[in-house]
Amino acid sequence: MNETLVIIGPGSMGTAIARRVGAGRHILVADLRAENAHAAEQMLLDAGFQVSTATVDITDPPSVRALAEKAAGLGAVTGLVHAAGASPSMSRPELVVRVDLYGTAVVLEAFGEVVAPGGAAVVIASQAGHRLSALTREEDKALATTPAEELLELPMLQPERLGDTLHAYELSNRGKALRVQAEAVRWGRRGARVNAISPGIVMTPLSRAELAGPHGDGYRRMIERCPAGRAGTADEVATVAALLMGPDGAFITGSDILMDGGATAAFFHGDVNLR
């Protein structure tokens, strides 16, 4: 049986995961920018993988459905890595929510219709979702289960309620984990699993841009004062993803794995303060 692994957002983490779990599968690399997809394609081709590319706008449901159909046409969709997202230092609050939260909802709904039995997905979220204060039960349910086409209409997601981009990023990534939890029920009916990973600061081109942005001082303090005393690597994220997507993770679904070197622990119980 031909199998397909879809990588949406082929940055450092997406491609590291592809290298760990892509052997024997056709890897379909998708990005909003064709040049990013082709750069990842060349790297994976050079490493011996079977690869093709597609462009996708995760905030456009027809575009995502077309990607899901293309993936299914290549073989049974047994893997999905959703690693696309917006940076809080380079985006407006409304755009962060539209890309990170709404885009994730669109992707999980579309691929939940084509994922094969035994398939598994990983959504890359962020430690930021764990720093957000507790929401009400009703707010949690709304973020988790509101159909994607209605999600951006929620009162809590209106521009006047979002605050700054950092709050929008925290809220969006809390929402990602909640969407994964809810979608695990629907995916389970197809014999498939879906989990999230919430990394801390992982050294990638995007994180280096964040360190140079308005929240850079806070991020540097986080790296210095977290229990691990360092930033993470994309390969470490890929190790966790390989567990979640492989047979050793067969009893894990609907979960959100926080891997941040203890930065969240230091935020609540130490002296890390981003603001």
Overall helicity:
40-55%
Named at the architecture level, the CATH assignment is 3-Layer(aba) Sandwich
Query: What is the number of helical segments per DSSP (H or I, 4+ residues)?
Result: 13
Please mark out the parts with pLDDT under 50 across 5 or more consecutive residues, or reply none. Answer: none
Q: Rg, please?
A: 18 Å
What do we call the CATH topology?
A: Rossmann fold
Our estimate of the beta-strand percent is 15-25%
CATH class: Alpha Beta
**End-to-end CA span:** 51 Å
What is the strand and helix layout of this fold?
Blueprint: E1 3-8, H1 12-21, E2 26-31, H2 34-46, E3 50-55, H3 61-74, E4 76-82, H4 93-111, E5 115-124, H5 128-131, H6 137-145, H7 148-151, H8 159-162, H9 165-188, E6 193-199, H10 205-211, H11 216-225, H12 234-245, E7 256-259, H13 263-269
Parallel strand pairs: 1-2, 1-4, 2-3, 4-5, 5-6, 6-7
Architecture overview:
It is a single chain. The protein has helices at residues 12-21, 34-46, 61-74, 93-111, 128-131, 137-145, 148-151, 159-162, 165-188, 205-211, 216-225, 234-245, 263-269, and strands spanning 3-8, 26-31, 50-55, 76-82, 115-124, 193-199, 256-259. The chain has 13 helices and seven strands. It has a single domain, classed as NAD(P)-binding Rossmann-like Domain (Rossmann fold). The model has no long low-confidence stretch (mean pLDDT 94). Strand 1 (3-8), helix 1 and strand 2 form a beta-alpha-beta unit. The longest helix is centred in the middle third of the chain and has 24 residues, at 165-188. The relative contact order is 0.14. It is an alpha/beta fold and 275 residues long. Helix content is 50%, strand content 17%. Strands 3-2-1-4-5-6-7 form a seven-stranded parallel sheet, with helices on both faces.
